[in-house]
């Protein structure tokens, strides 16, 4: 059996093998909307899926396909498909899998846009939604056993880094006949492999760590051929197509994914330890800390703890957040994460901007929380930057 290359090598080469002699070494950006045929029978065969090829850009595109193939291989899946944004792939996946009368079980700490799907849009279709306390595995298991069409998990969660035991919950959900979906955006394929832990589908907001440069929107989902074909069909008809230029930028970003994540893993842990011991900081949320309630689960199912952390100041007020963030020199105050630059912001302007103060409180997200996406800058500079900013807190 041929030995599989290390994941850092696969980040570079997956989806790009077999380049033709004297051809481009990089995947070309194919901007054409349509693809022509001299033979009508061949055209029809491609349109019906009997032959490989492309006919129309809303359906498929060579650049987009290369990106999907790269992530498929990194996640160890049979198939993959993409969408124009992370929320595009999340919503397309859920709308594909759920219909009136079905039941979805999830947790209260999902990303804000996902939370709105659960609280507002899916109930319009008379889909029963059960949202559980995120760290209460017994409650989640109990709700699954009451009936579950889809189990939707996000771990680590955005923005408080709560950890769910994927293997444990997948075993219960599989016995109930549920389809299991895991949002792996925070962890990436470098740090976590949900399909190996029992999930049916793993998805990403590719805008974040996969792309890594804050210059392209996209989403991707990987899983069995049967499930991916259904999601692809829903997406091609609803039209949330990933643009070829975005696919190219995401492809380029993924090539350095292993390097970036290793640096961000290392720096985030150092920063979390620094903040945990700072007199102006009340609490730090990072699964790499031994004090984190999900630390042991994270150790068992993750290869690294990621570049995302969040923390609360001793002065429990939004005013303290308002004062601190502008003082940071090496951090963008922006609604994004997973970039080469450090990015910082409160949930009210980032992960849960769609939610009201009351809704965030109900989800266990305080207004004094600061989300910190660690970049690839030198860690000593990031800590010094936090030090000078926290002096006035």
Notes on the structure:
This protein is an alpha/beta fold and 393 residues long. It has two domains: 7-254, 3-Layer(aba) Sandwich (Aspartate Aminotransferase, domain 2); 258-390, Alpha-Beta Complex (Aspartate Aminotransferase, domain 1), CATH 3.90.1150. The protein has helices at residues 7-13, 40-47, 62-75, 86-97, 112-124, 137-145, 166-175, 188-191, 225-238, 244-254, 257-276, 295-301, 318-324, 357-362, 379-390; strands at 79-83, 103-107, 128-132, 150-154, 179-183, 201-205, 219-223, 281-285, 308-313, 332-333, 343-345, 369-373. Helix 8 (188-191) links the parallel strand 5 (179-183) and strand 6 (201-205).
Question: What key attributes describe this structure?
Answer:
alpha/beta, 5-stranded mixed sheet, Aspartate Aminotransferase, domain 2, 2 domains, 7-stranded mixed sheet
Shape: globular
In CATH's first tier, which class of the largest domain applies?
Alpha Beta
Strand content: 5-15%
Radius of gyration, in angstroms, nearest whole number: 21 Å
Spatial order of the strands forming the largest sheet: 1-7-6-5-4-2-3
How would you summarize the topology of this molecule?
Elements: H1 7-13, H2 40-47, H3 62-75, E1 79-83, H4 86-97, E2 103-107, H5 112-124, E3 128-132, H6 137-145, E4 150-154, H7 166-175, E5 179-183, H8 188-191, E6 201-205, E7 219-223, H9 225-238, H10 244-254, H11 257-276, E8 281-285, H12 295-301, E9 308-313, H13 318-324, E10 332-333, E11 343-345, H14 357-362, E12 369-373, H15 379-390
Parallel strand pairs: 2-3, 2-4, 4-5, 5-6, 10-11
Antiparallel strand pairs: 1-7, 6-7, 8-9, 9-12, 11-12
Helix pairs in contact: 1-3, 3-10, 4-5, 4-9
């Amino acid at each position: 059996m041929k030995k599989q290359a290390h994941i850092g090598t696969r980040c570079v080469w997956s989806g790009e093998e077999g380049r033709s002699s004297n051809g481009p070494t990089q995947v070309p950006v194919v901007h054409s909307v349509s693809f022509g045929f001299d033979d009508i029978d061949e055209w029809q065969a491609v349109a019906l899926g009997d032959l490989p090829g492309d006919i129309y850009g809303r359906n498929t595109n060579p650049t987009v396909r290369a990106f999907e193939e790269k992530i498929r291989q990194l996640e160890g899946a049979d198939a993959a498909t993409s969408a124009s944004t992370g929320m595009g792939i999340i919503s397309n996946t859920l709308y594909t899998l759920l219909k009136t009368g079905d039941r979805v079980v999830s947790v209260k700490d999902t990303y804000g846009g996902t939370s709105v799907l659960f609280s507002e849009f899916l109930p319009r279709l008379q889909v029963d939604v059960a949202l559980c306390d995120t760290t209460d595995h017994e409650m989640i298991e109990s709700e699954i056993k009451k009936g579950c069409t889809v189990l939707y998990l996000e771990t680590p969660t955005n923005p408080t880094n709560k950890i769910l035991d994927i293997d444990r919950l997948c075993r219960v959900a599989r016995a109930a006949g549920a389809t299991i979906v895991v949002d792996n955006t925070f962890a990436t394929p470098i740090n976590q492999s949900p399909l190996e832990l029992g999930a049916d589908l793993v998805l990403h907001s590719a805008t974040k760590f996969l792309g890594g440069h804050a210059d392209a929107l996209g989403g991707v989902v990987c899983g069995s051929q049967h499930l991916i074909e259904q999601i692809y069909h829903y997406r091609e008809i609803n039209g949330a197509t990933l643009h070829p230029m975005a696919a190219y930028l995401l492809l380029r970003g993924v090539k350095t994914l292993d390097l970036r994540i290793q640096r961000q893993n290392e720096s985030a842990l150092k920063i979390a330890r620094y903040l945990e011991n700072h007199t102006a900081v009340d609490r730090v949320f990072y699964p790499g800390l031994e004090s984190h309630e999900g630390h042991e689960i994270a150790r068992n199912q993750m290869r690294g703890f990621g570049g995302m952390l969040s923390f609360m100041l001793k002065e429990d007020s939004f005013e303290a957040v308002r004062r601190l963030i502008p003082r940071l020199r090496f951090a963008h105050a922006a609604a994004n994460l997973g970039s080469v630059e450090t990015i910082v912001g409160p949930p009210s302007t980032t992960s849960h901007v769609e939610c009201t103060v009351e809704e965030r409180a109900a989800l266990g997200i305080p207004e004094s929380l600061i989300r910190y996406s660690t970049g690839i800058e030198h860690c000593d500079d990031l800590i010094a930057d936090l030090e000078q900013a926290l002096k006035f807190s």
